[in-house]
Amino acid sequence: MTSTSSEPTVTFVVLTYNQERYIENAIKSAFSQTYSPLEILISDDCSTDKTFEIARRLVDEYEGPHLVRLNRNRKNLGIGGHISKISELANGSWIFLAAGDDVSMPERTEHCMGIAGENPDIFAVACHFSLPPEYRTGGHTDNYTRKVSGRVTRSEMITFQLLAHSGNSMAYRSECFHWPNKFPSETWHEDRVLPFRAALLGTCIVTDRLLVQVDGYDPEHRPADGVRIRKESRFNIVACQACIDALKVARKEQRIGPVAFGVLAVRLWALKTTFWTEEQAAIANTAVKTLALTGIRKLASLAARGPSCFRQTH
Description:
Oligomer: single chain
Number of helices: 10
Helix content: 40-55%
Radius of gyration: 23 Å
Number of strands: 9
Order of helices and strands: EHEHEHEEHEHEHEHEHHH
CATH topology of the largest domain: Spore Coat Polysaccharide Biosynthesis Protein SpsA, Chain A
Mean pLDDT: 83
Largest sheet: 9 strands, mixed
Number of domains: 2
CATH class of the largest domain: Alpha Beta
Shape: globular
């Protein structure tokens, strides 16, 4: 692709942690991107294997046209903290995300930026991706997205449990990482928070082009145990709350009307409750019953005092 001054600078991020088996292909696919001007940011979350050493060797050997930067976190930040960190390091007006086991097709950035250029109201673009066979045996299928192509509305995102598409295939305007506040480092699920922010700022679109191949599969990352379920529940609740907070700011800034705000707020709260564990649901149920009983007692007390208690004094 021929670079012109009118084309925005893009940051292509490769996020990695303990992926020494896959990181070389992931980085080389970033190097192969046809879009320019491109900043490639390879960021390692304090890996304990040889991931960072492989990344450093590849960066030292690179002689291509793109600006390449390498970062290593001093301590492991987790997914949310890592996303927050790279949002501070990235210089591009758009940020493309890929994990250390994702291989992006050379035209991924160029194709998605072409869509962004034709649709100035778009704040996020997603493409299709493919999974290794091991994932399918675990119940996943290629492109486990809820929408094959086209624009994804705010309402649809909630219907899709805030997962319009998988995070490894997403690209966002940089504003999505900072509006209405810094990305919450305590969540795992950037692909629940960032697309909804994009939908509040403008809109999100899915292209039907398959532009990412997932190479890696680690069954230890997906254990079906009680600890994992409780962690997932907590992180999903944090993601939902982050979306509720963004919705409130969007209403305050008059990005959405009062009716849409009310409908979306109720649906987000309902979605949040679906992630509660049995213990959380029991606590909430007790709290609701207590509030209801308090309200009933208050009304009964007012009724016993007669109509005079409802008179206004001036």
